[in-house]
Amino acid sequence: MVEDRITDGTRIAQLLSSELDGREDGGLERVAVTNADRDVEPTADGARAYDVSLYRSRSEADTDESDEDETRLAQVFVQEDRARLEFTEGQDVAAEAAGDLELRVRPKATRPPRTLVFVESGAEVKRATDAVQEAVRSVATTD
């Protein structure tokens, strides 16, 4: 039995990144980890480690030259003992899903508003990924 619990914020963020980049199901095939800061050091307030971006294919009728549209779904920040997702899209759905998955959630009163989801151990990474999937589904249905 494993006695050690992963509670290092940087390591938790790395595990989450691997999970988001490695899975190709439930909408995660359109999710990418972008703008990563490989040298990020945790801070008390949280240092930005990377963005979680959602790619949506454009229709043939779209006149833009790009084949895909990128939306920043969330940002991931690292603190000494946890990682934090800050959802900028699909906030309400992410908050509800994360709460149902027994992750700590709170709103952030900024403009635009954000939803914070705290990932406090390596064991919570899968549940955080499920919350990201729900946010992806909600954003995809509003296209």
Automatic annotation (TrEMBL):
Region (Disordered): 27-71
Stored InterPro entries: DUF7993
Top-level taxonomic group: Archaea
Residue intervals of the DUF7993 domain: 1-140
Descriptive protein name: DUF7993 domain-containing protein
Organism: Halopiger xanaduensis (strain DSM 18323 / JCM 14033 / SH-6)
